[in-house]
Amino acid sequence: MATVAVDEHSTNASSHHDSALASCESKHCVRCRRYAAIRSSVAQRWSTLRDDLKTERLEDAVRWLQRQEPDMPDGGASASDGLGARGEYVCFVPNMSTQPWYSGLEDGAAAIKAAIEASGLVSDATLDTIRDEFSAAWTDDASAWTFNTTREKQHGWKTLSLVNQGAAQEGNQRLVPMTVDAVRRLGDNVRMTGCVFGNVCVSVLEPGAHIVPHRGPCNVRLRCHIPLFSPDGPWLRVGKRRRHWHSAPFLLFDDAYEHEVKHEGADSDGARVILLIDLWHPSLTADERRGLQLLFPPTA
After folding, report:
1. DSSP characters for 282-294?
2. Less packed terminus of the chain by CB within 10 Å, N or C?
3. pLDDT averages per 10-residue partition of the chain, 300 residues
């Protein structure tokens, strides 16, 4: 079965894009497999777009990507906060106001929380529909699910990809049409669309599975987890703080920070199942979102 890249691969927390090759099996990962191609395509696009994209932070990100300086501290959070060296990321926009976890009450994030609630994604009726569609897809079409293994190869997790690195997975979307409609109601100003860093999937984590510490490929998104089935055993750590999915209607975090997932429950507890949605980082301006779509499209 083919491997998709929703950035839950088990790379070492301190890996650079070169050293990560040994531990990421996806042939399409933007950091581990396609870094050189994306670097070249961004340079070509920037040469024609730079006069239109007059955003200093994006210009800094592109220039740094082309210079390929040695890994540097990000200049903001300390290493103890879990943010990596700049060289770990395919796209790193400087001077972003960010933090590992978001409650939805922070500046910018309040609009995200309002959009999630307005979409109906966390309403009881919509969640029941999503669970029903998930259960049918799980039972009826095993070929749609991608099996991912941890480095230990003992336990793993499965994903039903609906948007993979910005590209709609139309066959899978037809299995869960009401889920797709609910996600679309978030709107393109909130959900990361038209960009290679945007993903939507259903993720199933089996008891015993451990996704080791790692970081996402960019710092321009927040990741939203909506729990569908959430036993007590599984947890998610971002930075220093560990949380459980049953603790809130949704979890919102910046996956540029080191994060880790583990299901410590018994087999009888069942799997943790979430709907994962990538959202635009609230620190980005509308011009910067447009620029990222032009520089890092799904076909990057």
Report:
1. TTS-HHHHHHHHH
2. N
3. 45 36 59 84 91 88 75 45 83 94 91 96 97 94 82 74 96 97 97 98 94 93 98 96 95 96 95 98 96 89
